[in-house]
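Severity: low
Component: inverse-folding endpoint
Summary: output formatting inconsistent between runs
Steps to reproduce: submit the following C-alpha coordinates with default settings.
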Protein backbone atom coordinates (compact mmCIF):
# COMPACT_ATOMS: atom_id res chain seq x y z
CA UNK A 1 0.00 0.00 0.00
CA UNK A 2 1.16 3.55 -0.78
CA UNK A 3 1.18 5.99 2.14
CA UNK A 4 1.91 9.73 1.99
CA UNK A 5 3.02 11.39 5.23
CA UNK A 6 2.75 15.19 5.43
CA UNK A 7 4.68 16.10 8.58
CA UNK A 8 7.21 18.89 9.15
CA UNK A 9 8.94 17.41 12.21
CA UNK A 10 11.81 15.54 10.56
CA UNK A 11 12.43 12.99 13.32
CA UNK A 12 8.76 12.01 13.56
CA UNK A 13 8.32 11.90 9.78
CA UNK A 14 11.34 9.60 9.50
CA UNK A 15 10.03 7.34 12.27
CA UNK A 16 6.58 7.10 10.65
CA UNK A 17 8.06 6.26 7.25
CA UNK A 18 10.28 3.58 8.80
CA UNK A 19 7.36 2.10 10.73
CA UNK A 20 5.18 1.96 7.61
CA UNK A 21 7.96 0.29 5.62
CA UNK A 22 8.53 -2.31 8.35
CA UNK A 23 4.82 -3.08 8.07
CA UNK A 24 5.25 -3.76 4.36
CA UNK A 25 3.99 -0.48 2.90
CA UNK A 26 5.60 2.07 0.60
CA UNK A 27 5.81 5.42 2.37
CA UNK A 28 6.93 8.93 1.38
CA UNK A 29 7.20 12.00 3.63
CA UNK A 30 6.79 15.67 2.72
CA UNK A 31 7.56 18.51 5.13
CA UNK A 32 5.10 21.23 4.06
CA UNK A 33 1.52 21.69 2.97
CA UNK A 34 2.57 22.85 -0.50
CA UNK A 35 4.86 19.89 -1.18
CA UNK A 36 2.48 17.43 0.41
CA UNK A 37 -0.54 18.60 -1.55
CA UNK A 38 1.42 18.55 -4.80
CA UNK A 39 2.50 14.98 -4.09
CA UNK A 40 -1.02 13.98 -3.12
CA UNK A 41 -2.46 15.29 -6.37
CA UNK A 42 0.36 13.91 -8.51
CA UNK A 43 0.05 10.23 -7.53
CA UNK A 44 -2.47 7.71 -6.25
CA UNK A 45 -2.33 7.06 -2.50
CA UNK A 46 -4.03 4.47 -0.35
CA UNK A 47 -3.65 6.58 2.79
CA UNK A 48 -2.51 10.09 3.71
CA UNK A 49 -1.16 10.90 7.17
CA UNK A 50 -1.60 14.65 7.71
CA UNK A 51 -0.28 16.89 10.48
CA UNK A 52 -2.44 19.90 11.41
CA UNK A 53 0.46 22.15 12.43
CA UNK A 54 2.32 22.60 9.16
CA UNK A 55 4.65 25.58 8.64
CA UNK A 56 2.94 27.10 5.60
CA UNK A 57 -0.75 26.18 6.02
CA UNK A 58 -3.06 24.49 8.45
CA UNK A 59 -3.48 20.80 7.83
CA UNK A 60 -7.25 21.32 8.07
CA UNK A 61 -7.05 23.56 5.01
CA UNK A 62 -5.06 20.86 3.21
CA UNK A 63 -7.75 18.36 4.24
CA UNK A 64 -10.39 20.51 2.50
CA UNK A 65 -8.32 20.45 -0.69
CA UNK A 66 -7.85 16.68 -0.49
CA UNK A 67 -11.59 16.12 -0.07
CA UNK A 68 -12.23 18.01 -3.32
CA UNK A 69 -10.95 14.95 -5.18
CA UNK A 70 -13.61 12.70 -6.70
CA UNK A 71 -12.28 9.68 -4.79
CA UNK A 72 -10.09 10.89 -1.91
CA UNK A 73 -8.04 8.36 0.03
CA UNK A 74 -8.59 7.99 3.78
CA UNK A 75 -6.80 10.68 5.78
CA UNK A 76 -5.33 10.13 9.24
CA UNK A 77 -4.97 13.45 11.08
CA UNK A 78 -2.16 13.81 13.64
CA UNK A 79 -1.73 16.81 15.89
CA UNK A 80 0.13 18.01 18.96
CA UNK A 81 -2.91 20.08 19.98
CA UNK A 82 -5.56 17.64 21.11
CA UNK A 83 -8.63 19.80 21.60
CA UNK A 84 -12.28 19.46 20.75
CA UNK A 85 -12.13 21.86 17.79
CA UNK A 86 -9.41 19.88 16.04
CA UNK A 87 -11.11 16.53 16.67
CA UNK A 88 -14.53 17.65 15.42
CA UNK A 89 -13.28 19.72 12.48
CA UNK A 90 -11.09 16.83 11.35
CA UNK A 91 -14.01 14.43 11.27
CA UNK A 92 -16.44 16.93 9.78
CA UNK A 93 -13.83 17.76 7.16
CA UNK A 94 -13.62 14.16 6.02
CA UNK A 95 -10.73 12.69 8.00
CA UNK A 96 -11.12 9.00 8.75
CA UNK A 97 -9.27 9.04 12.07
CA UNK A 98 -7.47 11.34 14.48
CA UNK A 99 -4.42 10.78 16.73
CA UNK A 100 -2.80 13.11 19.27
CA UNK A 101 0.98 13.39 19.53
CA UNK A 102 2.94 11.82 21.02
CA UNK A 103 1.28 8.51 20.23
CA UNK A 104 2.40 4.94 20.63
CA UNK A 105 3.79 3.60 17.36
CA UNK A 106 1.86 0.39 17.82
CA UNK A 107 -1.37 2.39 18.01
CA UNK A 108 -0.35 4.30 14.88
CA UNK A 109 0.25 1.11 12.88
CA UNK A 110 -2.97 -0.44 14.15
CA UNK A 111 -4.88 2.63 12.97
CA UNK A 112 -3.09 2.56 9.60
CA UNK A 113 -3.97 -1.12 9.11
CA UNK A 114 -7.63 -0.50 9.97
CA UNK A 115 -7.92 2.42 7.55
CA UNK A 116 -6.21 0.50 4.75
CA UNK A 117 -8.47 -2.50 5.36
CA UNK A 118 -11.53 -0.26 5.16
CA UNK A 119 -10.16 1.25 1.95
CA UNK A 120 -9.86 -2.18 0.34
CA UNK A 121 -13.26 -3.44 1.54
CA UNK A 122 -15.09 -0.33 0.37
CA UNK A 123 -13.52 -0.24 -3.09
CA UNK A 124 -15.77 -3.05 -4.31
CA UNK A 125 -18.97 -1.48 -3.01
CA UNK A 126 -18.49 2.21 -3.67
CA UNK A 127 -21.53 4.26 -2.75
CA UNK A 128 -22.65 7.51 -4.25
CA UNK A 129 -21.16 10.09 -1.92
CA UNK A 130 -20.30 12.60 -4.65
CA UNK A 131 -23.81 14.03 -4.70
CA UNK A 132 -24.28 13.94 -0.93
CA UNK A 133 -24.99 17.32 0.64
CA UNK A 134 -22.02 18.94 2.36
CA UNK A 135 -21.81 18.56 6.15
CA UNK A 136 -23.31 21.42 8.11
CA UNK A 137 -20.97 24.25 8.97
CA UNK A 138 -19.22 23.65 12.28
CA UNK A 139 -19.96 25.98 15.13
CA UNK A 140 -17.18 24.51 17.27
CA UNK A 141 -15.95 27.97 18.10
CA UNK A 142 -19.07 28.88 20.05
CA UNK A 143 -18.04 29.27 23.70
CA UNK A 144 -20.95 27.30 25.11
CA UNK A 145 -20.17 24.35 22.83
CA UNK A 146 -16.65 23.74 24.06
CA UNK A 147 -15.04 21.40 26.51
CA UNK A 148 -12.17 23.46 27.87
CA UNK A 149 -8.73 21.84 28.14
CA UNK A 150 -6.54 19.39 26.31
CA UNK A 151 -5.07 16.99 28.88
CA UNK A 152 -4.44 13.35 27.91
CA UNK A 153 -7.51 12.22 29.86
CA UNK A 154 -9.73 14.32 27.53
CA UNK A 155 -8.41 12.96 24.23
CA UNK A 156 -10.70 9.87 24.17
CA UNK A 157 -13.60 12.24 24.90
CA UNK A 158 -12.76 14.47 21.95
CA UNK A 159 -12.39 11.47 19.63
CA UNK A 160 -15.67 10.03 20.87
CA UNK A 161 -17.52 13.30 20.26
CA UNK A 162 -16.02 13.56 16.79
CA UNK A 163 -17.16 10.03 15.88
CA UNK A 164 -20.61 10.58 17.39
CA UNK A 165 -21.04 13.87 15.49
CA UNK A 166 -20.59 12.14 12.14
CA UNK A 167 -22.88 9.16 12.77
CA UNK A 168 -26.50 8.43 13.68
CA UNK A 169 -26.03 5.59 16.18
CA UNK A 170 -27.13 5.79 19.83
CA UNK A 171 -24.58 7.22 22.27
CA UNK A 172 -24.09 6.44 25.95
CA UNK A 173 -22.30 9.10 28.01
CA UNK A 174 -20.96 8.01 31.39
CA UNK A 175 -19.09 9.74 34.18
CA UNK A 176 -19.47 11.15 37.69
CA UNK A 177 -21.88 13.93 38.55
CA UNK A 178 -20.70 17.35 37.43
CA UNK A 179 -18.43 16.26 34.59
CA UNK A 180 -20.58 17.73 31.80
CA UNK A 181 -22.65 14.87 30.39
CA UNK A 182 -25.47 17.19 29.31
CA UNK A 183 -22.99 19.56 27.65
CA UNK A 184 -21.40 16.62 25.85
CA UNK A 185 -24.79 15.60 24.43
CA UNK A 186 -25.47 19.17 23.26
CA UNK A 187 -22.09 19.34 21.51
CA UNK A 188 -22.77 16.10 19.64
CA UNK A 189 -26.17 17.42 18.53
CA UNK A 190 -24.78 20.79 17.42
CA UNK A 191 -22.10 19.16 15.27
CA UNK A 192 -24.36 16.48 13.79
CA UNK A 193 -26.54 16.50 10.70
CA UNK A 194 -29.49 17.00 13.07
CA UNK A 195 -28.28 20.38 14.31
CA UNK A 196 -31.27 22.15 12.72
CA UNK A 197 -33.68 19.89 14.61
CA UNK A 198 -34.66 20.14 18.28
CA UNK A 199 -32.48 19.04 21.19
CA UNK A 200 -34.83 17.81 23.92
CA UNK A 201 -33.51 16.79 27.36
CA UNK A 202 -35.35 14.47 29.73
CA UNK A 203 -33.90 14.33 33.25
CA UNK A 204 -35.20 11.04 34.61
CA UNK A 205 -33.84 11.48 38.13
CA UNK A 206 -36.00 14.58 38.59
CA UNK A 207 -39.29 12.78 37.87
CA UNK A 208 -41.29 10.21 39.86
CA UNK A 209 -41.12 6.77 38.28
CA UNK A 210 -44.87 6.72 37.52
CA UNK A 211 -44.59 9.89 35.40
CA UNK A 212 -41.54 8.91 33.35
CA UNK A 213 -43.44 6.81 30.81
CA UNK A 214 -45.96 9.60 30.16
CA UNK A 215 -43.19 12.21 29.89
CA UNK A 216 -41.16 10.07 27.50
CA UNK A 217 -43.87 8.71 25.20
CA UNK A 218 -46.74 11.13 25.86
CA UNK A 219 -50.29 10.11 26.73
CA UNK A 220 -53.78 9.98 25.28
CA UNK A 221 -56.80 11.71 26.80
CA UNK A 222 -58.08 9.86 29.89
CA UNK A 223 -54.99 7.65 30.01
CA UNK A 224 -54.92 8.27 33.75
CA UNK A 225 -56.59 10.52 36.30
CA UNK A 226 -55.99 14.13 35.34
CA UNK A 227 -55.12 13.40 31.70
CA UNK A 228 -57.68 15.78 30.23
CA UNK A 229 -56.17 15.98 26.76
CA UNK A 230 -53.66 14.37 24.46
CA UNK A 231 -50.09 15.33 25.37
CA UNK A 232 -47.08 14.64 23.13
CA UNK A 233 -44.06 13.26 24.99
CA UNK A 234 -40.40 14.27 24.88
CA UNK A 235 -39.84 11.71 22.15
CA UNK A 236 -42.36 13.36 19.84
CA UNK A 237 -40.97 16.82 20.62
CA UNK A 238 -37.54 15.58 19.53
CA UNK A 239 -38.70 14.44 16.08
CA UNK A 240 -35.95 14.91 13.47
CA UNK A 241 -33.61 15.95 16.24
CA UNK A 242 -32.02 14.47 19.36
CA UNK A 243 -33.55 13.19 22.59
CA UNK A 244 -31.13 13.30 25.52
CA UNK A 245 -32.17 10.92 28.32
CA UNK A 246 -30.21 11.81 31.44
CA UNK A 247 -29.87 9.22 34.24
CA UNK A 248 -31.46 6.57 32.07
CA UNK A 249 -30.96 4.01 34.82
CA UNK A 250 -34.02 5.50 36.56
CA UNK A 251 -36.36 4.06 33.90
CA UNK A 252 -38.43 1.06 34.96
CA UNK A 253 -37.93 -2.28 33.18
CA UNK A 254 -41.31 -1.80 31.44
CA UNK A 255 -40.32 1.61 30.04
CA UNK A 256 -36.91 0.25 29.09
CA UNK A 257 -38.60 -2.39 26.95
CA UNK A 258 -40.67 0.24 25.14
CA UNK A 259 -37.61 2.43 24.58
CA UNK A 260 -35.73 -0.54 23.13
CA UNK A 261 -38.57 -1.11 20.68
CA UNK A 262 -38.38 2.52 19.58
CA UNK A 263 -34.61 2.37 19.03
CA UNK A 264 -34.95 -0.80 16.96
CA UNK A 265 -38.12 0.02 15.02
CA UNK A 266 -38.60 3.82 15.34
CA UNK A 267 -42.10 3.00 16.64
CA UNK A 268 -43.86 3.58 19.94
CA UNK A 269 -47.32 3.94 21.47
CA UNK A 270 -48.48 6.76 23.73
CA UNK A 271 -49.55 5.86 27.24
CA UNK A 272 -53.21 4.83 27.02
CA UNK A 273 -53.04 4.63 23.22
CA UNK A 274 -53.32 1.80 20.70
CA UNK A 275 -51.91 3.20 17.48
CA UNK A 276 -48.26 2.96 16.55
CA UNK A 277 -46.49 6.27 16.04
CA UNK A 278 -43.48 6.37 13.73
CA UNK A 279 -40.88 9.11 13.91
CA UNK A 280 -37.19 9.74 13.39
CA UNK A 281 -35.17 10.73 16.43
CA UNK A 282 -31.65 10.08 17.69
CA UNK A 283 -31.17 8.83 21.25
CA UNK A 284 -28.29 10.00 23.46
CA UNK A 285 -28.37 8.61 26.99
CA UNK A 286 -26.31 9.37 30.08
CA UNK A 287 -25.73 7.76 33.45
CA UNK A 288 -23.52 8.40 36.46
CA UNK A 289 -24.29 4.89 37.71
CA UNK A 290 -22.63 1.74 36.38
CA UNK A 291 -25.24 0.33 33.99
CA UNK A 292 -23.23 -2.87 33.56
CA UNK A 293 -23.68 -3.50 37.28
CA UNK A 294 -27.36 -2.64 36.83
CA UNK A 295 -27.55 -5.41 34.22
CA UNK A 296 -25.86 -7.86 36.60
CA UNK A 297 -28.25 -6.88 39.41
CA UNK A 298 -31.30 -7.30 37.16
CA UNK A 299 -32.17 -3.60 37.26
CA UNK A 300 -31.33 -2.72 33.67
CA UNK A 301 -32.06 -4.62 30.47
CA UNK A 302 -28.97 -6.16 28.93
CA UNK A 303 -30.27 -5.78 25.37
CA UNK A 304 -31.01 -2.07 25.91
CA UNK A 305 -27.60 -1.55 27.52
CA UNK A 306 -25.73 -2.88 24.49
CA UNK A 307 -28.07 -1.08 22.10
CA UNK A 308 -27.34 2.25 23.80
CA UNK A 309 -23.57 1.90 24.02
CA UNK A 310 -22.90 1.50 20.31
CA UNK A 311 -20.73 4.53 21.02
CA UNK A 312 -19.73 5.15 24.65
CA UNK A 313 -18.05 8.33 25.86
CA UNK A 314 -16.68 8.33 29.40
CA UNK A 315 -16.09 11.74 30.95
CA UNK A 316 -13.19 11.67 33.44
CA UNK A 317 -13.46 13.30 36.87
CA UNK A 318 -11.76 16.68 37.17
CA UNK A 319 -9.16 15.14 39.48
CA UNK A 320 -7.90 13.13 36.49
CA UNK A 321 -7.40 16.29 34.40
CA UNK A 322 -6.08 18.71 36.99
CA UNK A 323 -3.93 20.54 34.41
CA UNK A 324 -7.17 21.76 32.81
CA UNK A 325 -8.22 23.57 35.99
CA UNK A 326 -6.50 26.93 35.19
CA UNK A 327 -8.12 27.17 31.75
CA UNK A 328 -11.50 26.14 33.13
CA UNK A 329 -11.26 28.68 35.94
CA UNK A 330 -10.42 31.49 33.52
CA UNK A 331 -13.31 30.44 31.28
CA UNK A 332 -15.84 30.43 34.13
CA UNK A 333 -14.50 33.78 35.30
CA UNK A 334 -14.99 35.23 31.81
CA UNK A 335 -18.54 33.84 31.66
CA UNK A 336 -19.66 35.01 35.10
CA UNK A 337 -17.63 38.23 35.43
CA UNK A 338 -16.41 40.83 32.98
CA UNK A 339 -13.18 41.66 31.15
CA UNK A 340 -11.78 43.47 34.21
CA UNK A 341 -11.99 40.49 36.54
CA UNK A 342 -8.85 38.42 37.08
CA UNK A 343 -7.48 35.74 39.38
CA UNK A 344 -4.75 36.69 41.85
CA UNK A 345 -1.55 34.63 41.91
CA UNK A 346 -2.56 32.80 45.09
CA UNK A 347 -5.74 31.31 43.58
CA UNK A 348 -4.47 28.69 41.10
CA UNK A 349 -2.27 26.77 43.59
CA UNK A 350 -5.33 26.25 45.78
CA UNK A 351 -7.47 25.22 42.81
CA UNK A 352 -4.83 22.70 41.76
CA UNK A 353 -4.54 21.28 45.28
CA UNK A 354 -8.25 20.49 45.63
CA UNK A 355 -9.55 16.98 44.85
CA UNK A 356 -12.78 18.28 43.20
CA UNK A 357 -15.31 15.65 44.26
CA UNK A 358 -18.00 17.80 42.59
CA UNK A 359 -15.94 17.97 39.38
CA UNK A 360 -16.35 20.79 36.84
CA UNK A 361 -19.65 21.92 38.33
CA UNK A 362 -17.94 22.43 41.70
CA UNK A 363 -15.19 24.50 40.06
CA UNK A 364 -17.75 26.73 38.33
CA UNK A 365 -19.57 27.22 41.63
CA UNK A 366 -16.28 28.06 43.38
CA UNK A 367 -15.50 30.80 40.84
CA UNK A 368 -19.03 32.21 41.08
CA UNK A 369 -18.74 32.17 44.87
CA UNK A 370 -15.46 34.09 44.71
CA UNK A 371 -17.03 36.67 42.41
CA UNK A 372 -19.97 37.12 44.76
CA UNK A 373 -17.85 37.79 47.84
CA UNK A 374 -14.86 39.58 46.30
CA UNK A 375 -16.33 43.09 46.08
CA UNK A 376 -13.69 43.99 43.51
CA UNK A 377 -12.16 42.90 40.23
CA UNK A 378 -9.30 40.82 41.64
CA UNK A 379 -10.24 37.41 43.08
CA UNK A 380 -7.93 36.22 45.87
CA UNK A 381 -7.64 32.84 47.55
CA UNK A 382 -9.46 34.25 50.54
CA UNK A 383 -12.56 34.65 48.35
CA UNK A 384 -12.74 30.92 47.56
CA UNK A 385 -15.06 28.58 49.50
CA UNK A 386 -13.59 27.49 52.83
CA UNK A 387 -12.92 23.88 51.80
CA UNK A 388 -10.66 25.09 48.97
CA UNK A 389 -8.76 27.42 51.26
CA UNK A 390 -8.09 24.58 53.69
CA UNK A 391 -7.14 22.08 51.00
CA UNK A 392 -4.77 24.46 49.25
CA UNK A 393 -3.09 25.91 52.30
CA UNK A 394 -0.82 22.94 52.84
CA UNK A 395 -0.13 21.83 49.29
CA UNK A 396 0.41 25.30 47.86
CA UNK A 397 3.69 25.88 49.71
CA UNK A 398 5.39 23.20 47.67
CA UNK A 399 8.48 23.42 49.90
CA UNK A 400 7.64 20.86 52.58
CA UNK A 401 7.10 17.43 51.08
CA UNK A 402 5.86 15.96 54.34
CA UNK A 403 3.26 18.70 54.76
CA UNK A 404 2.13 18.42 51.16
CA UNK A 405 1.88 14.63 51.46
CA UNK A 406 -0.04 15.02 54.70
CA UNK A 407 -2.61 17.23 53.01
CA UNK A 408 -2.84 14.79 50.10
CA UNK A 409 -3.47 11.89 52.50
CA UNK A 410 -6.12 13.80 54.42
CA UNK A 411 -8.01 14.65 51.24
CA UNK A 412 -7.79 11.07 50.01
CA UNK A 413 -9.07 9.66 53.28
CA UNK A 414 -11.93 12.15 53.27
CA UNK A 415 -12.84 11.02 49.75
CA UNK A 416 -12.73 7.33 50.77
CA UNK A 417 -9.85 6.32 48.49
CA UNK A 418 -8.40 2.81 48.47
CA UNK A 419 -4.64 2.18 48.56
CA UNK A 420 -4.65 1.72 44.78
CA UNK A 421 -6.42 5.06 44.30
CA UNK A 422 -3.84 6.77 46.52
CA UNK A 423 -1.03 5.19 44.51
CA UNK A 424 -2.46 5.76 41.04
CA UNK A 425 -3.56 9.36 41.66
CA UNK A 426 -0.13 10.34 42.98
CA UNK A 427 1.69 8.58 40.16
CA UNK A 428 -0.65 10.04 37.54
CA UNK A 429 -0.13 13.60 38.86
CA UNK A 430 3.65 13.12 38.98
CA UNK A 431 3.84 11.65 35.48
CA UNK A 432 1.50 14.29 34.01
CA UNK A 433 3.61 17.06 35.55
CA UNK A 434 6.86 15.57 34.26
CA UNK A 435 5.44 15.08 30.76
CA UNK A 436 4.35 18.71 30.75
CA UNK A 437 7.86 19.83 31.74
CA UNK A 438 9.36 17.70 28.96
CA UNK A 439 6.80 18.96 26.39
CA UNK A 440 5.26 15.47 26.21
CA UNK A 441 8.44 13.98 24.72
CA UNK A 442 8.59 10.49 26.24
CA UNK A 443 12.05 9.69 24.91
CA UNK A 444 13.63 12.78 26.47
CA UNK A 445 11.88 12.21 29.79
CA UNK A 446 12.94 8.55 29.95
CA UNK A 447 16.53 9.44 29.06
CA UNK A 448 16.98 12.33 31.48
CA UNK A 449 15.26 10.60 34.41
CA UNK A 450 16.88 7.22 33.64
CA UNK A 451 13.50 5.56 33.31
CA UNK A 452 12.77 2.52 31.17
CA UNK A 453 11.04 3.89 28.07
CA UNK A 454 8.72 0.88 27.68
CA UNK A 455 7.58 1.24 31.29
CA UNK A 456 7.00 4.96 30.75
CA UNK A 457 4.92 4.35 27.61
CA UNK A 458 2.78 1.76 29.44
CA UNK A 459 2.11 4.13 32.33
CA UNK A 460 1.42 6.99 29.92
CA UNK A 461 -0.98 4.87 27.92
CA UNK A 462 -2.79 4.01 31.16
CA UNK A 463 -3.35 7.61 32.23
CA UNK A 464 -4.31 8.75 28.73
CA UNK A 465 -6.95 6.04 28.42
CA UNK A 466 -8.70 7.05 31.66
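Observed output (run 2 of 3):
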Amino acid sequence: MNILIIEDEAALASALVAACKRAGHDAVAKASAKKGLAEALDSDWDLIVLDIGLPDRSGLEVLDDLMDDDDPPPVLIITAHGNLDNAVLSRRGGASEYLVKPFDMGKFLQTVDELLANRVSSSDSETATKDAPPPPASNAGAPDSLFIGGTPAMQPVFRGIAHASTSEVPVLITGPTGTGKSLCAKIIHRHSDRQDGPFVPLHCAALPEQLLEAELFGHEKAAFSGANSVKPGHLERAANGTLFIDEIGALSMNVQAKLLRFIDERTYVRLGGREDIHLDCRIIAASRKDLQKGVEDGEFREDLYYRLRVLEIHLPPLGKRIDDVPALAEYFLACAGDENHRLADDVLPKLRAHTWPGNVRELRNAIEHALAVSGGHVLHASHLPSELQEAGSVASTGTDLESALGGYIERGLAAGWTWQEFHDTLEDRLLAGLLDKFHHKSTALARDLQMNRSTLLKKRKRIESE
